[in-house]
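forwarding from the other thread:

> can someone predict this with zinc ion?

sure thing
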Amino acid sequence: MLRALWQQFDSLTSRDGVLYRLFYDSAGLVVNYQLILPAQMKVPFLELIHADTSGHLKFAKCVPHVVRSAWWLTWRRDLNIFIRCCAKCESFHRGAPHVKPGSTPCWSGPLVNVGALI
Ligand SMILES: [Zn+2]
């Protein structure tokens, strides 16, 4: 995570002691400030984006909300796993399990603890 942040050092800024990443549009203008999300806030943030505010959106519909709000190195992978392992979405897919055997494990193990607190 630190290496990824270092590589985009010019896009980082601090406001009121909080670290943000500047997100630019294709013209090079700053579109918004993405919060550099601490590791322990990933799951609550993903719950907020996927379920709490909008009612269990698909991956593609969650992406703009994440991009508008926060950034961390593995956010796409984490979002994808989080949605595929959502119990409520899983119960909606009656019958065949949404997560196939042998695929990426659900959100209960090491992913929760991956990443450094910044
Ligand atoms: Zn869900």
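Residues 50-51, 56, 86, 88-89 surround zinc ion (CB under 6 Å). thats all i got for now
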